[in-house]
Amino acid sequence: MASSEYYERIYAAVAAVPRGYVSTYGDIARAAGLPGQARLVGYALHALPSGSTLPWHRIINARGELSLPDDGAGSIQRDRLAEEGVEFGLRGRIDLGRYRFGFSD
Description:
Helix content: 40-55%
Organism: Natronospira elongata
Keywords: DNA damage
Oligomer: single chain
GO molecular function: catalytic activity
Shape: globular
Largest sheet: 2 strands, parallel
Strand order of the largest sheet: 1-2
Order of helices and strands: HEHHEHH
Strand content: under 5%
CATH class: Mainly Alpha
Number of strands: 2
Distance between the termini: 22 Å
CATH superfamily: Winged helix-like DNA-binding domain superfamily/Winged helix DNA-binding domain
InterPro entries: ATL_DNA_repair, MethylDNA_cys_MeTrfase_DNA-bd, MethylDNA_cys_MeTrfase_DNAb, WH-like_DNA-bd_sf
Protein name: MGMT family protein
Number of helices: 5
Number of domains: 1
């Protein structure tokens, strides 16, 4: 399977995460049928064209943290999640028990 096919599966999984929820890179990989390929999810999101409407900001790491630096895309991600009602804890973590989107198998 070509990487573009993997990316399309990843993008479809990302698109399924609703407003006000988050998923981890690993969650997206599993939902796309690519278990163990969390890093590939990061590569796919990084490859998105500027101006993409895909809700990339809803994808976070397994610790409930943003993986992007605060001085760039990370601040955009934080702002977009906050606008959707996602709350950050004192250490900047998102409560996955509360905000994690559960994909159905």
